[in-house]
Structure formats: structure tokens, C-alpha cells
Amino acid sequence: MAALQKLNAGIIVLFLTIISLIVIYPLLYVIASAFTPGNSIADMPIVPFTSGFTLDNFTHLFNNTNYPLWFMNTLQVAVATSIGTMFVASLGAYTFSRFRFAFKKTFMVSMLVLQVFPSFIGMIAIFVILFRFGLLDNLWGLVLVYLAGNTPFNTWLMKSYLDTIPRSMDEAARIDGASHLRTFLTIIMPMAKPIIIFLLITSFTGPWMDFILPQMVLRSPANHTLAMGLFSFITDRRNDFTTFAAGSIIIAVPFVVFFVATQKMLITSLGAGAVKE
Amino acid sequence: MRAISSNSAKANINKRFTILLAVIVMGLAHIVVFKQYTKGILFALCHVAFFVFLPTIVNNFAGLITLGEPQPDLHILLRDNSLFLLMDGMLTIAFVALFVGVYVISVRNALKLQAEFDNTGRMPTTKGFFAELATGSFPIVALLPTVLLILFFVVVPLIFAASVAFTNYSSPHNIPPNNVIDWVGLDNFRFMFGGNALWAGALGRVIIWTLAWAALATFTCYVGGFFMAVVMNNAKMRIAPFFRAILILPYAVPGVISLMVWSNMLNGAFGVVNRTLIQLGIISTGIPWLTDVWLARFMTVAINLWVGFPYFMLLVTGTMTAISQDIYEAAKIDGASTFQTTRRITLPLVLYQTTPLIIMSFNHNINNFGAIFFLTGGGPTMPDSVTTSAGGTDILVSWIFNLTVNLQQFHYASVLAVMIFVAIAPFAIFNFMQTKSFKEGDV
């Protein structure tokens, strides 16, 4: 029995090793490319890290490209989208969770139906609207579009969380004479901290790698975002894979560290989200 | 007795008067009857603004119907721009809808005040304007950002996109501001659904592939994620956390980066995968990973599995921790094997919990532009690709992108957008009907 268990464990380790190698292979390859001399992917050795080591790709990235600018633009959009989503979604969720009013059900159902459409189905329209509002080629215009796209789903998510907070909490505050706004800010928001953090994180990560919307909305090079910049390194005309790799791992490393560090919390949040749906 | 009846008669007249005032000009009842000046004046200003802009509103509606006249003699910037006329018409409808909303709110509010007066016989206490905003009108104020954002950046664009499907907005003859566009009824739908064999063929191919892709992508990721979650759960060894950290990596790395890397690695001529296989002597010429139609389709699903399984692995792990250990204990005592407990306990329970997320994932994959665009770019080219710009792995959304950006056939792109709407809406509504809050009637 013990021998069988050992064999079983051996098979599992072997299996996990194979899967891990498949998972690691392309990632290792990007990391290696970032530190390898040369430009094109055709120059790269087939075994990673075997043709020299250099930091040239990183110096090139920071000195000869607009990478820092793209980074700051994207950071601005991500922070604004994240904070904006938190406020709009939590205000909406609080209202849906605690108030009764006309057309509430219609409103909520239409939000749920609307949230399944990617914003770029209406991209011609978004282009024209932003042009009409004078927000074309403007980072804030992009933020508005993201915000609108994030709102329905996150409002629903937050509403189902707020439903689990006992109403007696806010009723007590109301009896003590607090206004709705005050109750919301001082009672509800602190109690909804886990979902708010989850919401802040998920809406912060979105803009970093979105390509299609910025590509359409932002025209001048001064407003380009990271995904646009990185993609421009490896178009058909240019194959600057090593610079792309260097730029990519600078973004990917914080993401990876963060996700691996918080995987316990992610598991609980995702599990909880599923149960509450 | 008499006193009571005369009293109620007085209240009746008063009520009619209130309603009359409230309906004629909104806010008037607030000012005249209830002396709530700030609120009343704000409502009244809304109404005045509506009358001031009435000519513009009528004008914009007319523009929406005609979409402008051709004016070849005028300078290009002075001609009617149909696109703007269409958008302004849509925005005007949105604003009028908002106005109607405010109107309904004002009348309801006046009626509420009246009811309060009828019940108590006293004038409703006038709170300060800001106190009122923070308490009584809180739902309206709190939902305003949501309403405005969704109206202008989700609803209007979707309706706009849908209505373009009924126009001839396309290159080369109907591109504003050079030329105007016109309403053409159902012509585009007739064209796409059989009017033109080439386009109808491409449409059929893309729709079938979109559905097949979404089903396969969701199924493979779910099965892969479930399997890995079960394996990790049973792997009670010391290095298990190490494997878990590695397996989560594809979820942590931004998807666009992974897809662009895979796309380069699988390149037929200089990709590292082919070069490695040739060096090892396994193959003599490169495998056309992304240039052979069926192989490219297979690779989109395979690479999507690489990108997507960790999400479901985390999800299933999270759901599994919520299952009571007692059930497993009981099964173990009865002599059930690991395979049996997985098959009979874990699978049904997890499946039940995660069904809504599976449907959401299916919808997400129907719209998964990135997974196609960054890996294959929609290619390889098909016999009809020159005309239709639909490649072998193109799904509806990536075809929309090609039609808009490369061919400027906006009208056909919009027909596809309507198709996506028709394809997705049932799933979204079904998913909603499965939610707890809907079933319990507490929405």
C-alpha cells in the first residue's frame, strides 16, 4: 500500500513537472530574450540564455523609446479608472441594495444584459461621441469609456456583497440621525472593504493591456499607452522582439509577484463570487 | 361631520391644483404650493432649458431622419456630415429621455408632498437643499453617474452601432464628410444572408467558427482547470505550493503579452518552436502552426487553454474549499476511491456552483478579440479573404475589426454587431434567471 502511494505520488510529481515546463517555457523564453543581444526573434538561440547576456535592451527601452511616457499614461488611466469605478459602482450598489424605487428591476436587468457586450462593438459610435464631447485623443475620454464599461458588472458584484451586510447596521446609524450619504461612507464602505479591494484591483489591471480602445481613441504619440507601444515593437514592419520582451517583463513582474502573493485571497474571492452569483 | 367633508373637499381642490401645476411646468407646484424654492427653481430651469432647446431638438430629429443632403458644391467642411447628424439625433433622444425622467421624478415628488400634506394636514417641512440631497433624493443622486455613463457610453453606442446596420455607411461612396449616408432598410441583412454568395459563405463560416471556438475554449479551460485543481488538491506533498505558484503564472502575466509571445514563437519561418524541432531532428521543414487553417484553429484553442486554465483552477479550488469535509469522510468510510469521490461529489457540486461563471466565460469567449487577434491576426487567408477580409480563424468581433479598420465597410460590420447581440442576449438573460436574487424575487 505504501509502495503504491509512493508510486502514485511519483506519477503526480512527474505530471506536474511536465505541465509546469509547458507553462514556464514561453515565459522563460521572454525573460531570456530581454537579456539577449540582437533584435529579431530569429536571432534568439533555441536554448534560452546561451548567447550572451546584456542590459542593452533595457537601456534602449528607456533612452530611445517613449516607454516611460507610455507607462505614466497607462498608470494615470488605470488609477483614475480604478478609483472612479469604485465610487460609481459602490454608490450604485448601495442604492440598489437598500432602496426601493420605480423601474429598479428593469434597470438592474438591463445592466446585466448590457454588461456582456464589449465596448468596441460600438466603437465607431464611441469615436464619434468622444469627438462630439471634445474628448478624442484624450486620456480622460478613455477613462470615461472604461468606467462605463466597468460599471454594470461591478455594481452587480458589489450589490450582491452589500446584500449580505445586515440592514440593522445602517438602520441603527439612520436612527442616530446619520444621512444616507454619511451612513454609506462611514458604515457601509468600511464593512465592504474586501469587495472594494477586489474591485479596485480588477479595474486597475484592466487598462494595462487593453489595446483596441486606446488604438482607436488616442491618436497623438504623446498619449499612447503601454499596450500600443509594446505592440508597435513587433508589427509586421518591425521585429524588435528583444525590446518588446524587456518592456513586457517590466510590466509582468509586478503583476506576477502580486498574484502569487495574493493567491490565497484570490481563491477565496473567486470562490465567494461563485457562491453568491 | 360637515367639518370633515368640507375639509376633504378643500384637500381635493388643492390636490387637483397641485397636479395641474406640476404637470404644466415642472417645479411650479414646488414653488407655488409647497414653497420649496431651490428644488422648484432647479426643476423649472430644466423645463425652461427644454423649451429653449426645442428648435434644436426638432432639428436634430429631422437630421436623424434625413441624414443630410448631398451638397457637392459646398466646401467639404460645410457639407452635412451624416455621421454627426446620426449621432446628434441619438444624443438628442438620450437627452429627451433624461428630460422625461426628470419630469416624471418632479411630478412624483410633488404628488408625494401632496400626500404628506393630505395625511398630516401640515405643510411638509422644508429641509435644506443639501440635506435633501443627502437623504430624500439620495437614490437619484447616487445613481446619476451610473445612468449618465451607461446611457452615453454603453446604450447610445450600441443603438448607434445597430442603426448603422440599416444605412449604407461604407467605403468608397458613402464616407462622411465627403458624402452623405442614407437609410437603406434591410438591404445589408439581405446582402449578408444570401444576397451575395461570397459574403454569405464567409458569414456562415465565421458564425460557425465563433460558436465552435467559444464552446471549445470554455470547455477545454474548464476541464483543464478542474483537473488541475483536483490534482493539486490531492497532491499533499511538500513541493505542492511551488507547483501551484508556477501554474498560476499564465493568469498573472497579462494575456496580451503571452499571446504575442506565443504568436512569435509559433511563427513558421523563424519561430523558436519550429527551429527547436528541426534542430532535434524531429521534423525537416517547419510546421505551419498558424498558417494552415485547421492547425491554426487548433492552436487558438490550445494556446487559449494555456492562458485560461489557471482562472478555472483557482475558481474550482475556491469552490472546493467550501464543500464540507464531512461528505468526503462519509464517502471514504463507505470505501469510495479518490476517483469516485471526485466524480460523484466534487464534480456535481462544483459544476452547480460555477454554472453562471461557465456561461459568462462562454459569452466572454464569443467576444474574445485578443485571443484571436494577437495570436493569428484572424489569419490564415481564405479564398474569400481579399473581398470579405474574414480569415480562417476570425471570429465575429475580429471580423468586425477588420471590416471597420481595413475595409471601412461599417454597414456590414454593424450587421455583425447585431448578430452578436442576438447570439449573446439569450445567454445573458438565462444566466440572470439562474441567479439567487432573481429566484428569490429580491432584485
Note down, in words, how this protein is organized.
- The complex is a heterodimer of chains A (277) and B (443).
- With 277 residues, chain A is mainly α.
- In chain A, 73% of the residues lie in helices and 0% in strands.
- Chain A contains 13 helices and no strands.
- Chain A is globular and about 70 Å long.
- With 443 residues, chain B is mainly alpha-helical.
- Chain B is built from 21 helices and no strands.
- In chain B, helix 9 packs antiparallel against helix 16.
- The N terminus of chain B is likely disordered.
- At the A-B interface, helix 1, helix 3, helix 4, helix 5 and helix 6 of A face helix 5, helix 7, helix 9, helix 10 and helix 11 of B.
Biggest chain pair contact, residues each? A-B, 99 and 104 residues
Residue share in helix of chain A = over 70%
Task: Point out poorly predicted stretches of chain A.
Answer: none
Shape of chain B: flat
Quickly give the structural class of chain B.
mainly alpha
> Total helix count of chain A?
13
Number of DSSP strand runs of chain B = 0
Strand content of chain B: under 5%
**Major sheet details of chain B:** none
User: What is the mean predicted local confidence, pLDDT of chain A?
Assistant: 83
Between the first and last Cα atoms of chain B, what is the distance in angstroms? 46 Å
Give a nutshell description of this structure.
The complex is a heterodimer of chains A (277) and B (443). Chain A has 277 residues and is mostly helical. Chain A is built from 13 helices and no strands.
How would you summarize the topology of this molecule?
The complex is a heterodimer of chains A (277) and B (443).
Chain A: H1 2-34, H2 56-64, H3 67-98, H4 104-114, H5 123-132, H6 139-162, H7 167-175, H8 180-191, H9 193-205, H10 212-217, H11 226-233, H12 241-261, H13 263-276
Helix pairs in contact in A: 1-12, 2-12, 3-6, 3-9, 6-9, 7-8
Chain B: H1 2-24, H2 28-32, H3 37-52, H4 54-66, H5 82-120, H6 129-134, H7 138-164, H8 187-195, H9 197-234, H10 240-247, H11 249-252, H12 255-265, H13 272-279, H14 293-321, H15 325-333, H16 338-366, H17 369-373, H18 385-388, H19 396-407, H20 410-434, H21 436-439
